[in-house]
Amino acid sequence: MKIxxxxxxxxxxxxxxxxxxxQTVVEAGWAGIxxxxxxxxASGEYSAFITVDRNLSFQQNPQKLSLAVFIIHSxxxxxxxxxxxxPDITELLKQPLTNDIYEIRK
Length: 106
Prior knowledge:
Blueprint: E1 2-5, E2 21-24, H1 35-42, E3 48-51, H2 56-59, E4 68-72, H3 79-82, H4 86-93, E5 101-104
């Protein structure tokens, strides 16, 4: 399963998802691309997109795309604040995903 990390998610976050094929937006060569176009490009190439951008759920309709969108509701985008979400994200990624928004909260 290929997963794309948004630019707002620290690069080191991918090291916490070692059992998956994770790439950052920068590694994909898509740095600076706005969410709408970014999700269209990722659609079909990636199974999931992980972001901390809470506004994305109001801006995009992932059902029109071919990927799941994970929005992490963390107090910050610092790695130490995001680590606690890894078990929930890992569990969800092991399930069959739909083209939907998954709100990840603690």
